[in-house]
Amino acid sequence: MSDYEGPFTLQINSFKESSNAERLKIALENKYNDVYIAEADFDNNKYYRVRIGKFNSLDEAYLIAEALNNEGYSVLISKYDEE
Predict the structure, then answer these.
(1) Would the pTM of this model clear 0.85, i.e. be above it?
(2) Per the CB 3.0–4.6 Å rule, which of 30, 57, 75, 82 could disulfide with 65?
């Protein structure tokens, strides 16, 4: 599979504290759909990643990422993890 084939998701931020992730999730839900928190474990630490959406095309993901970037967020476009 090519890196340019979806689905994709947007990662807005990653936190060690779940409460921080939840606050950002709530704030983003005022404007965006499909906001969720994905948990990840690295080096015996748990991280809470605030993400938006499941986008089928890179162009679709990029449009939302650009809007978020204009709001001051640093956005990472990545493959959507099927959980």
Answers:
(1) yes
(2) 75
